[in-house]
Design goal:
about 325 residues; mainly beta; Immunoglobulin-like; 3 domains; 5-stranded mixed β-sheet; about 45% strand; membrane; Ig-like_fold; tyrosine-protein kinase; transmembrane helix
Length: about 325
């Protein structure tokens, strides 16, 4: 004898809901019995992130085995080869990447009996590497020794490090702005944000100022850090300033994604065990419900035509 039933894996995040059943339903409340928990298995994954600077080439390998055919999508749209995108077997190559190439990619491996999908994120941005730049290990070039008798107003000593005014970086990265300068007497440096004095309490976590490298460092940037940052370098003989613009790029929000083919149908004998797997890809924290179709007063559907459903298990990650 075989026991059967219909189970739903319902995944919810703050921005959207993904369900394997109808979007509306009638829930059956059972206050007398503790709901049983069927054997279940949750797998929550965040897509792997690949970062490239504009103009760079990017190569990604589809990490799925034994694939007869591999298909690719970007933001849910089929992806084919073009003058910048090359598809060779399990490899995807993007030549001369641009910010438009950023998004959620997926490769689906089709096999004889099933298919499997792997997801990854691509961010094409002028990101500044986290931590300190390598050139900070030697900041001697930023200081120019001045003859004590030669008084001089502030001046820039390395304008090449200041050419890039617009910085667009992903959230949670570290940002560094530099204003290497000289002068006699040695000038001082202060920072403004959007034309006003920039204080430590103006951002969560504060910031670092390394006077020996004429730099401002902000770790784990967030959208509220967007704005114009101006270094003001001055001594008694004059003042100079330079402004950078920071844009913090957030990942494109997307609804939760259930791996294709999951959860799958399963059969078992009475008294046997059965396992359902719900594999979810989500950047945001997902909320998962397992729901079963039930009967009420001999009917599977309510007066409104919607099925009766019972919540068996709820879990938030």
């Amino acid at each position: 004898m075989v026991s059967w039933g219909r189970f739903i894996c319902l995944v919810v995040v703050t921005m959207a809901t993904l369900s394997l059943a109808r979007p509306s339903f009638s829930l059956v409340e059972d206050t007398t019995l503790e709901p049983e928990e069927p054997p279940t298995k949750y797998q929550i994954s965040q897509p792997e992130v690949y970062v490239a600077a504009p103009g760079e080439s990017l190569e990604v390998r589809c990490l799925l085995k034994d694939a007869a055919v591999i298909s690719w999508t970007k933001d849910g749209v089929h992806l084919g080869p073009n003058n910048r995108t090359v598809l060779i077997g399990e490899y995807l190559q993007i030549k001369g990447a641009t910010p438009r190439d950023s998004g959620l990619y997926a490769c689906t491996a089709s096999r004889t009996v099933d298919s499997e999908t792997w997801y990854f994120m691509v961010n094409v941005t002028d990101a500044i590497s986290s931590g300190d730049d390598e050139d900070d290990t030697d900041g001697a070039e930023d200081f120019v020794s001045e003859n004590s008798n030669n008084k001089r107003a502030p001046y820039w000593t390395n304008t090449e490090k200041m050419e890039k005014r617009l910085h667009a970086v992903p959230a949670a990265n570290t940002v560094k702005f530099r204003c290497p300068a000289g002068g006699n007497p040695m000038p001082t440096m202060r920072w403004l944000k959007n034309g006003k004095e920039f204080k430590q309490e103006h951002r969560i976590g504060g910031y670092k100022v390394r006077n020996q490298h004429w730099s401002l460092i902000m770790e784990s940037v967030v959208p509220s850090d967007k704005g114009n940052y101006t270094c003001v370098v001055e001594n008694e003989y004059g003042s100079i300033n330079h402004t950078y613009h920071l844009d913090v790029v957030e990942r494109s929000p997307h609804r939760p994604i259930l791996q294709a083919g999951l959860p799958a149908n399963a059969s078992t004998v009475v008294g046997g065990d059965v396992e359902f797997v719900c594999k979810v890809y989500s950047d945001a924290q997902p909320h998962i419900q397992w729901i079963k179709h039930v009967e009420k007063n001999g009917s599977k559907y309510g007066p409104d035509g919607l099925p009766y459903l019972k919540v068996l298990k709820v879990r938030t990650f």
